[in-house]
Design goal:
With 228 residues, this protein is α/β, with parallel strands linked by helices. It is built from eight helices and six strands. Helix 2 links the parallel strand 2 and strand 3.
Length: 228
């Protein structure tokens, strides 16, 4: 392994609990990488929490919290940040990288997390010196109640990253994460996700319509655009 021990930070409950654990020395990690899918794509509440709570807390405890963005590699926008919402609404685009079902009921190809988070973090790790021969250790905030999401070890598609799951190692659930955050005197962050994510459950959509009706209306407009 290289000397790079990074955490793929999402701005939600589990990630923030890991930030607290790192501050307390329970997790050996001083580099947190936040792959921001875009100010027009991340839920505004998540971005507010990262800027006003997580970033100052990290700085106070000597933790480097870096914000990253997907950068266009080719075309007229090469070298410029590209957001997920921009990709979805680009005129003439036939790409739908978020999880949707096609007209025949089959699931479409979902690549949003890989394109705007995993690869973005991976590019930063390569920039810092990670290689397939000396991969970086990358921690992810998956708790015991979602253990089925864990894929320990090295992803053949990203051989310069070795994935570890500190919450699983410590036996912590999402409920434990709430306690860790509040015990540190921090407010609990909202669930991190794009405001238009099709994985939202019905209650999340009701809350979006109730608390941020302008985003709910934009999500309806986006759905109509994707259907067309």
């Amino acid at each position: 392994m290289t000397e790079i021990d990074a955490f793929s930070y999402g701005g939600g409950v589990q990630s923030t609990a890991c930030l607290v654990l790192a501050a307390k020395g329970r997790i050996n990690c001083s580099l947190f990488l936040f792959a921001n899918v875009g100010a027009d794509s991340e839920h505004p509440a998540t971005l507010t929490y990262v800027d006003q709570i997580a970033r100052p807390y990290a700085a106070e405890h000597g933790i480097e919290l870096i914000e990253l963005h997907r950068i266009a590699q080719r075309g007229p926008d090469a070298g410029q940040p590209v957001t997920l919402y921009q990709r979805l609404t680009r005129p003439g685009s036939r790409s739908i990288p978020i999880p949707v079902r096609m007209s025949n009921g089959a699931p479409g190809t979902r690549s949003c997390t890989a394109d705007h988070k995993i690869q973005v973090v991976g590019r930063e790790l390569r920039r810092r010196g990670a290689t397939a021969e000396q991969p970086a250790t990358v921690a992810l905030g998956i708790s015991t109640d979602e253990i089925e999401r864990a894929r320990p070890g090295t992803d053949p598609r990203m051989p310069h990253q070795h994935r570890v799951y500190p919450l699983l190692d410590l036996g912590y659930s999402r409920h434990d994460c709430y306690r860790i955050i509040t015990d540190a005197g921090l407010p609990v962050p909202p669930k991190s996700a794009c405001w238009f994510c099709p994985f939202h459950d019905l209650e999340a959509w009701r809350r979006l319509r109730r608390e941020t009706p302008e985003l709910f209306n934009r999500a309806c407009e986006l759905e109509a655009t994707l259907n067309r």
